[in-house]
Amino acid sequence: MTLLQPFCFRKRLSEKMQKLAQDNHLPKQLKKKWKVSIAAMIRRAERLDIITKEDYQSLIRIMQRRGQRKEEPLDDVLITASPALLKASVMMLLQENVLQPKSLWMNYL
Fold first, then answer.
1. Phi, psi at residue 75, to the nearest 5°?
2. CB neighbours of 28 closer than 8 A, spacing ≥ 6?
3. How far apart are CA 99 and CA 76, in angstroms?
4. Where would you tag: which of 2, 31, 43, 75 has the fewest CB atoms within 10 A of its CB?
């Protein structure tokens, strides 16, 4: 997964974010490239001051009207990474008797 580094992200989006509201294809292209949700890209752009808070709110409202807040375009196509490190960590804690299955269930799930 790409971490959306500020320099690269700002460079790619600074001009394109203004077109995001009008263009249906641009968000999909960016999501396909970065493998990050459109909502996360919009949030990151706002935090990096690429777009204003008002632009952020407007773009989120547009996504809401399009029904894209729960299921974004390409969600059914792009394969997301599974949390393999978390699973491996929990398995190791259980195997080394650091955690017991019952305590894990009661405290963390």
1. -60, -30
2. 73, 74
3. 36
4. 2
Rounded to whole angstroms, what are the CA distances from 40 to 14, 34, 55, 81? Answer: 15, 11, 14, 16
Residue 1 has pLDDT above 50, yes or no: no
Residue whose C-alpha is closest to residue 37's, from 62, 70, 65, 86: 70
Long-range contacts of 77-81 (CB under 8 A, 24+ apart): 78/31, 78/32, 78/35, 80/1, 80/35, 81/1
- The model's pLDDT over 78-109, given as tens digits with 9 standing for 90+, comes to 876 677 788 888 889 889 988 888 877 777 65
Say what the pTM is.
0.57
